[in-house]
Known about the structure:
By secondary structure, the protein is mostly helical. The protein is built from 19 helices and three strands. It has helices at about 45, 75-85, 90-100, 110, 115-130, 135-145, 145-155, 160-170, 175-185, 195-200, 205-230, 240-260, 265-270, 275-300, 310-320, 325-350, 355-365, 370-380, 385-405; strands at about 10-15, 20-25, 40. The chain has a three-stranded mixed β-sheet with strand order 2-1-3. A hairpin with a 7-residue loop joins strand 1 (about 10-15) and strand 2. Helix 3 runs antiparallel to helix 19 and helix 5 runs antiparallel to helix 18 (about 370-380). The longest helix has 27 residues, at about 205-230. It is globular. The two termini are about 30 Å apart. The model is unreliable at about 1-70 and about 415-420 (pLDDT under 50). It comes from Lactuca virosa. Its main location: membrane. Belongs to the bile acid:sodium symporter (BASS) (TC 2.A.28) family. Keywords: Membrane, Transmembrane, Transmembrane helix.
Amino acid sequence: xxxxxxxxxxxxxxxxxxxxxxxxxxxxxxxxxxxxxxxxxxxxxxxxxxxxxxxxxxxxxxxxxxxxxxxxxxxxxxxxxxxxxxxxxxxxxxxxxxxxxxxxxxxxxxxxxxxxxxxxxxxxxxxxxxxxxxxxxxxxxxxxxxxxxxxxxxxxxxxxxxxxxxxxxxxxxxxxxxxxxxxxxxxxxxxxxxxxxxxxxxxxxxxxxxxxxxxxxxxxxxxxxxxxxxxxxxxxxxxxxxxxxxxxxxxxxxxxxxxxxxxxxxxxxxxxxxxxxxxxxxxxxxxxxxxxxxxxxxxxxxxxxxxxxxxxxxxxxxxxxxxxxxxxxxxxxxxxxxxxxxxxxxxxxxxxxxxxxxxxxxxxxxxxxxxxxxxxxxxxxxxxxxxxxxxxxxxxxxxxxxxxxxxxxxxxxxxxxxxx
Length: 420
């Protein structure tokens, strides 16, 4: 398994232009640093091999640029430890989910302070993203590859919302769970999508810009789509949802970006700790919501009434017929549809393999933390927040598995030029 470095340092990549100009794009959320620049048009097998993925110590500069500061061995080791700990996000959220099921009172101190505790937590996660965000670099990349980026963002806000609505109808979910699933499907941008894309040898720059665009677009599109699709179940106040999204997502991102440009030295000192704190906060948020609802979910399950001699098939049927089973099944189907249809859609429009993988991962991985916060803040039933909370566990397991599968399957057309 290749070692991952999750510090919030810039990822330097060659563009596809003949002059090979370079841009530095922050790989926020789960940033992976690569020792040398990667020509996008070349075979990633030569550049993303296990021996080539290393902790970044320096990067090449253009003529006239000042040389970057080289990290001391002690600082390098310390940041590597923090980065490796941050890479265990799927483990944290899975273990936390098990604890929430077995002993829900573990998270009572956090649940009792909801929804404020949920909102502040998501705001902190988005602030960590903003600390690494340089809008000028993202704008430059958007100018170079507009078609791929526009298609990817459009896919995020069409494929998943449509399947969220369809799955809720097909499974006959209760109104509260239907609203929760639809709300989740309207919150694109998985927490670890950039990491999974790099592991999968996908188009990392495309993944980064899609994440940024979907995050900023959430202030308008998430409330609007939720109102249209979930309005048949309950009344949805799109204006209040939009204001909340602005407060807990867009505002912290902009503040973080401002701090980065205004106080670069202070931000540089805090950056090594940001990934680990962000993933721990995200895990706490998801597991707290799960613990809040686990009591009523257990009461809806009929497994306890079955004898020890009951066959595994009957246990499975009983679980799926329960409310908890329906939530898990609906979330599984939603993310599977996102990964699969996202890949197929990118294939049909003529994208190359690396772009297909990036689109598939970005479409399939959602911002479950945003879904949890909006559900807890604007809907009276706590069950609305359950699908996003379960998604935090299921999504990371599915996404990581897909990424590691693709890691060992070289893109067949990786040497071809991209669509743009």
